[in-house]
Automatic annotation (TrEMBL):
It comes from Sinocyclocheilus rhinocerous. This is NADPH:adrenodoxin oxidoreductase, mitochondrial. It is an enzyme of class 1 (oxidoreductase). It comes from the Eukaryota. The lineage of its organism: Eukaryota, Metazoa, Chordata, Craniata, Vertebrata. Keywords: FAD, Flavoprotein, Mitochondrion, NADP, Oxidoreductase. Gene3D superfamilies: FAD/NAD(P)-binding domain (3.50.50.60), NAD(P)-binding Rossmann-like Domain (3.40.50.720). Pathway: Steroid metabolism; cholesterol metabolism. FAD binds at residues 30, 51, 91, 363, 370-372.
Amino acid sequence: MKLHFSVTHSVCGLSSPSGPRVCIVGGGPAGFYTAQQLLKARRDAVVDIYERLPVIILRSRSGLRLVTNVINTFTQTAQHERCSFHGNVNVGKDVTIDELQQAYHTKPQHNTEGNRSMGIPGEDLAGVFSAKDFVGWYNGLPSNKEPRPDLSCETALVLGQGNVALDVARILLDTDITQNALEALAGSKVRRVLIVGQRGPLQIACTIKELREMVNLPNTRADMLPADFEGIAEALKGKNIKSKRFIHLNTTLIDEKAEKCWGFRFFRSPVEILAGADGKRAAGIRLALNKLEGSGESACACACACSDPTGQLEDVDCGLIISSIGYKSIPIDPAVPFDPQKAIVPNEMGRVQDTAGLYCSGWVKRGPTGVIATTMNDSFDTACVLIQDMEAGKLDVSANKPGAQAITALRQTRGVRTVLFSQWEKINAEEEKRGRSLGKPREKLLDVNQMLKIA
Ligand code: NAP
């Protein structure tokens, strides 16, 4: 998503003399889509968007790539006369939840994204990255400048077979990213990327478009294990176009002369990251071979691996391991309802459970799934529910609260500098200028202080 982005955000109603005001925490796709719908549906609504980074939208934290028309829509929203973007405001640190609650009438809640842990020994070794950190590194997120991945190994292994895993694999083999990451990748010795899944081709998590991009990657060839595809053709008769492509994939070698290769490895779960001679750096991974329980897309590897493991283990040499097994939201305020099992804020159609005036959309509402259109629809739904509640009198918008004015005063006394949209445009222009000199659309700035200086 990631919504990247922080697809996690919340909104809260606020009254003002001119009409309801809404505070949105999180300046990613979910936040912008919610704002867009609110501004459209309530001609008197005023919306303030608070974002931890000094930048917006172009920095998808989940790796979601935003197409130009999506970016244009967000830009129009940010420039709307009733909308303000306040970047560089870390809710929970620069401004507390209570302060926002006082200013905005209700308690806003902000979640941030974390990594799903693999829960296996060796996870902390050097050379093991979460996809979130790796994507953050090549996307130029200031918080992921370090550690830089060491790309001196020949084989890299990505755990998980979702769209993020494919993005990561593609970047390792062919790339269009920050100069910093480009330089590291230019010197990369990675020639082979294995994308490992716990289930089979029928259950693969990535979508066709992303798979096609992988297949069409220049100068690479696919390297599959025919055994992984045994019995699939029969199982597929009359079904599932997505998986049929894998049959095709299995029989198509893309470019036999290509120096680099990638391949899916199915029916394998991580058991342990194996350290090299120094005991500090990852040198391989131990995988358990799974059998599936059940059939079709819902077949399960976990239960089978636990209750009836095949007992077969396989060690793979690889110096870089990226765990791309999904994102999860993390609560930043224990006072806000949070379901740690599902890593979502318990809600009913975006209304946060037992917390009047607090709403959520994006991954914190439904979990870390879906493409950008899913996030758009989901955010529009939350905005509609919020407006319905205002109009039905369920959300009190009669009291007069200071809103952004109070927050601005607070952060000024604390020396926290906000980056407004017009200032972000300066950062954007500088990034584009730097990009032009390198023959790229943009060269992202990695240092927050530098961004603030330019803003
Ligand atoms: P995802 O689609 O949920 O894929 C997660 C992968 O991790 C699956 O292959 C899953 O296997 C595997 N996995 C989960 N737990 C595991 C474990 N304990 N051990 C081994 N493997 C495990 O997540 P994602 O790739 O992070 O993507 C998140 C969402 O963003 C998705 O909806 C995706 O489509 C979207 N996205 C879209 C784009 C795009 O539109 N271009 C780009 C990036 C992301 P099982 O299926 O067997 O559980």
